[in-house]
Amino acid sequence: MMKAGERWHCTNAAYRCSILVEATGETEGKNPLCACGGIMKKQYAPPVFKYLDFLRFPEPIPARRESPED
Known about the structure:
Largest sheet: 3 strands, antiparallel
Shape: elongated
Mean pLDDT: 78
Distance between the termini: 68 Å
Radius of gyration: 23 Å
Number of helices: 0
Order of helices and strands: EEE
Structural class: mainly beta
């Protein structure tokens, strides 16, 4: 399923074409093909967890060591 606003890129290392989807469309269980014939893949976006974000603790600030003065 291709959704409007997604960015897809060509897996052909020599070509590396990129497209921005303007209209939602559907392909029959296959990734779209690039003009060069290579398979296109959706750009990876890591998952975002919102439900358990309150469990995160702020990172501790490293203590500064004072160097001994000569």
